[in-house]
Amino acid sequence: MIKSLLVAARDRDRLKEILQITSRFGLGVLLSRLGLDGAESRAGAEEADAQSLPRRTRLALEALGPTFVKLGQILATRGDLLPPEWIAELEQLHSRAPTLPFEQLRPAVEEALGEPPEVAFASFDPQPLAAASMAQVHRATLQDGREVVMKIRRPDIRPRMEADLRLIAQLAAIVEAASAEARRFAPVAMMRQLAEAVLEELDFTAEGRNADRLRADFAHEPRVEVPQIHWAWSSETLLVMDYIDGVPPRDAEMLRRAGIDPGAIAALGADIMLDMVLINGRFHADPHPGNLLCLPGNRIVLLDIGMIGHVSPRRREEFIGFVQALNTGDPAQLADVLAIWSTGSDVPGSQIQAMAERLIARHSGGPLVLQVLVGDFLSLMRAEGMALPPDLLLIFKALVTVDGVLSAIEPGFNLSDAMKRSTMRIAMARLSLEHWAPILQALAWELAKVGNDAPRLLRAAIRRLEADPASTATDPANHPSTALISASRWIAGAILAGAALIAGALLLS
Known about the structure:
The chain is of the alpha+beta class.
C-alpha cells in the first residue's frame, strides 16, 4: 500500500529513498502493524527479532533525516500511547550530520548578510563549532569586538523537508483509515503538530523571537541568561547571537571545579522551569544538558530555543490542581483534573475516579519523584485507553527532562520541593500590577461601552414604559416613575464605575 501513495513527480525519488531505508532497517513488521499490508516481504521473518524493533526504528528515523527525527521526538512524548521501551529508545534520537566545508555554506551566508562574512564581521572561523542535520554553527567576532556564533541553515534542506511533510501527511491519512491501533495516535493530528514544529524550526527568526521572549520573561532574574540576538545580521536562514562560554550541567565535579555550586544550580533550574510553565505560560521544550550552560555565580544560560511550548491560563490552573491534589492527597480534586484531560476518550467516570485513587495511594504523602510519578501516570492512561492532549504531554516531557538533568548533578534533588516554593511566586505574580493591569483595562473598556450605550438604553426603557402603562399601574413598585428612577440609578452607577476603572487602568498603565 505504501508504494501506491499518490505523490508528485518531484517527491518520487524521496519516496524511493524512504522505502530503501525502511527496508534496510527491517521495519516491515512495524509497517504491517500500521495497516500498510504488503509494505515489506520480510515482515514475518522479523517477528523473531521483535525485541530490537524500537532500536531499529530509532536508527531508521535518524537515517531518514531531520523531519523524521522530529517525528520521533514528538512520539517520544507519547508515554500515554507507547510502552516504556519505545519511549526510552526514541528519547535517544539525535540530528546527527557530517560537517560541511564553509565554502559550501558561503553562498547562503553571503545572501543572508548581503555581503561576504569577511566584510560583515571583524573575523569569523571557517571551522564549524557544531553541526546538526538542520544547521551548522560557526564562531565570529563583530566589528565592536563582541564574540558571536552564526547558526547557518544547511543549503537546500527546506525543499527536502517539505517533501517529507507531504509524504508523511499522505501516509498518516492512510494509516488512520487502515488501522484501529494507529487511530489511538491520531496520526493526522500528529502530522499537523509535526508540520508546525518543522516549519517553525526551519525559520530561524522564530528561534530569535523565542529567545527575545524568554529573555523578557526573566528580565527580573539576573541569574538567568539568554543569548542576545543580533537582528541586523539575522534572517530566516542565518541566526547571529552572542557566544557564551559555560559548563553544561552533566557532571557535578566539573561544575565545582568551575566555581559553580551544583545544589544552587539544581534549585535555580527547577525554579526556572516551573516559572516558565506555571507563571510565564511559555517554556523551553527541550531542556537537555546540551541546551543549558552554567556560569560562575550559579547562573544558567538557556540555549537553542527553536522549540518552545505554550501553556494556556486554563491549562496552568489544571496543572496546579493536579500537583495540589497529589500534595494534599485529594482523590476527588485529582479525578476532576483527570476528567478534563481525558475529554473525548469515552472513559467512564468510575474508572477515572479509580485511577485518581491509585495515583494518590502510590504518590501522595511523601516526596513526589517526578519520573516515577509521570511513568506510572502515563502507564495508567495507556492501560485505560486514554490519550492526553499533546500540549500537556510536552509539559510533562520537559519537566521530566529537567528533573533528570538536575538529579544527575545533585543526587537526591527533589522537584516537589521546588513545586512548593513556586506556590508563593504564583500568588505574588497574580497580585502584581502587571497581572491586573490588562484585566482592569479590558473591564474598563467594557464598562465604557456600557456608558456609551446608556442614552440609548434609557430611551428604550422610557419608550417601553410609555407603550405599556397598564402593566405597571396596579403595582406601586412597578410604577413608571419608580422603574425609571431605578434604571437611571443603575445606568449612572455603571457610568461612574466605568469612569473610575478607566482612570485606575490608565494610572496602572
